[in-house]
Specification:
By secondary structure, the chain is mostly helical. It has a single domain, classed as Arc Repressor Mutant, subunit A, CATH 1.10.10. It has 5 helices and 2 strands. The protein has a two-stranded parallel ribbon with strand order 1-2. Helix 1 crosses helix 2 and helix 2 packs across helix 3. The chain is globular. It starts with 18 loop residues before the first helix and ends in an 8-residue tail after the last helix.
Length: about 120
Amino acid sequence: MVDPHPREPGEDASEPVDEYTEEVLSVVERIPPGRVMSYGDIAEYVGRGGPRQVGSVMSRWGGAVPWWRVVRSDGRPAEGHLVRARSHYAAEATPMRPSGDRVDMREARWDGGSGA
């Protein structure tokens, strides 16, 4: 079986991806450009785990999916990734707060529905 989530350099290709990880990564892959979900939103959508479990998945496997579309509940990207995330947000016209360091969650949050 071909792994649908290729690993980034440094990730252990021999480690199997479990069902929860697959579900989380699948949700992240479906977030439309210019939209975001919080770690907690994804856990709620998947129906199990919590923000920390989603964060753990993203920390280990998120390099192969649009990781910048997963943010903290206040709209901040993962620690240490603001500069890289900003370039993606600009390219995708993601709504930002006036400060420019957080996504505007009221405008950019995606609920997992078919409409962007």
